[in-house]
Design a protein that fits this description.
binds thiamine diphosphate, two-stranded antiparallel ribbon, 5-stranded parallel β-sheet, alpha/beta, 14 helices, 8% strand
Length: 390
């Protein structure tokens, strides 16, 4: 309040026609991340959640963790070019996948392999891109999973465009777009959220705030009170949730999906979590964070949080834990075996699925490559038949 206002001497009228456009209060996130697990009496967190769904959450978390360690091992064996592990973030991955109906669309980032697999994508196909192999590796339309996206935040405008278009066509579809904390500094994040709010597009934005964008901590990424607060500036609600609490994330996403489906518009969800592994196998995380920090987050492990609650509620015993681990081992073994097979590669595939009608320049390049491959094949045959020795 200015001195003039305090004395009551002068209170200017607002500019002509000005009035508040929206009450910001309902859009503001809670002061602390929403939690369900471990909040009330032991075991009470499961509430009225369907036991079959709880079992599925647990099985997917355990399988996801094992998938991460297996995929990381495959990078060391040279079978995978790179793998951005989501160990520590499995609750977000699984909750996102299970919050959607079959008719909805998932728009994952490169770190969201587990979400795609939990939605039903073949575990090997999910690694095609990271293997440096054939384009996306799967047909995005089959399971309605957009390509795992490497350029930061570009999947967000795609999600908004798809969701808006679907609504114009009268399709009852929601798009859920996943992004990291660093990605929220991208222009595409701004444009996507702005369009989504103005159009009231049926989109849910899930930001996994895992503490770092490679080595850049959140404090150097933004001065916002929280990433969820950014929603207010666009006129959409921001929700803050404990990203390691699978039931809390699922609850918040479920509400956001329902809101979007019923015409209520988009929601920005910030899930507070932690990337336990390095950014990828190519990163040395010891250079920018401490062991103590990682140890504190291991105490708040998504699998442990759910396991504790399910056991206290009498919904899980040692036999159930064993069965989930066995199933995860089977997934890992199959992944290992299939990734150790050399895929048949045709370099000419490079030109497929780029344009419906290839450009003349691409046709020229394709002809050139075809000729080079034919020449290489001829010379290989010649050397096999000893032709060079003549
Ligand atoms: C447009 C763009 N700029 C830069 C990069 C390089 N890059 C890859 S991952 C990354 C950090 C992203 O961090 P965050 O969004 O927090 O996601 P996280 O990796 O933690 O899941 C950067 C800068 C990129 N992929 N795309």
């Amino acid at each position: 309040m200015t001195v003039l206002e305090q004395t009551g001497a002068y209170r200017p009228a607002p500019p002509p026609g000005w009035q508040p456009r929206t009450d910001p209060a309902p859009l503001l996130p809670d002061a602390e991340p929403h939690r369900v697990l471990g909040v009330g009496a032991p075991g009470s967190g499961v509430g009225a959640t369907d036991p079959a769904l709880l079992k599925r959450f647990y099985a997917e978390l355990v399988r996801g963790r094992r998938y991460n360690t297996q995929a990381t091992a495959l990078t060391r064996q040279g079978r995978l070019a790179v793998y951005p592990s989501s160990t520590g973030q499995e609750a977000c991955e699984v909750a996102a996948a299970l919050a959607l109906e079959q008719r909805d669309w998932l728009f994952p980032s490169y770190r969201d392999t587990l979400a795609a697999v939990a939605r039903g994508l073949d575990p090997v196909q999910a690694l095609t891109l990271l293997r440096g192999d054939w384009h996306t590796g799967y047909d995005p339309r089959e399971l309605r999973i957009a390509p795992l996206c490497t350029p930061l935040a570009t999947q967000l405008p795609h999600a908004v465009g798809l969701a808006h278009a679907a609504r114009l066509q009268g399709d009852d579809v929601v798009a859920l777009a996943m992004i990291g904390d660093g990605g929220t500094s991208e222009g595409d994040f701004h444009e996507a959220l702005n369009f989504a709010a103005v159009w009231r597009a049926p989109v849910v934005f899930l930001v996994q705030n895992n503490g770092f964008a490679i080595s850049v901590p959140l404090a150097k990424q933004t001065a916002a009170p929280s990433l969820a607060h950014k929603g207010v500036g666009y006129g959409m609600p921001g929700r803050l949730v404990d990203g390691n609490d699978v039931l809390a994330v699922h609850q918040v996403l479920d509400e956001a999906v329902q809101r979007a489906r019923s015409g209520g518009g988009p929601t920005l969800v910030e899930a507070v979590t932690y990337r336990v592994d390095a950014h990828t196998n190519a990163d040395d995380a010891t250079r920018y964070r401490s062991e103590d920090e990682i140890a504190a987050w291991r105490e708040h492990d998504p699998i442990v949080l759910l396991e504790r609650e399910l056991k206290a509620a009498g919904l899980l015993d040692e036999e159930g834990v064993h069965a989930a681990r066995e199933a995860a081992e089977e997934t890992a073994a199959a992944l290992r075996a299939r990734m150790n097979e050399d895929p048949p590669l045709d370099p000419m595939d490079l030109f497929e699925h780029v344009y419906a009608e290839p450009t003349s320049r691409l046709r020229e390049q394709a002809d050139q490559l075809r000729a080079e491959l034919a020449a290489a094949a001829d010379s290989a045959e010649a050397s096999n038949t000893g032709e060079w020795d003549k």
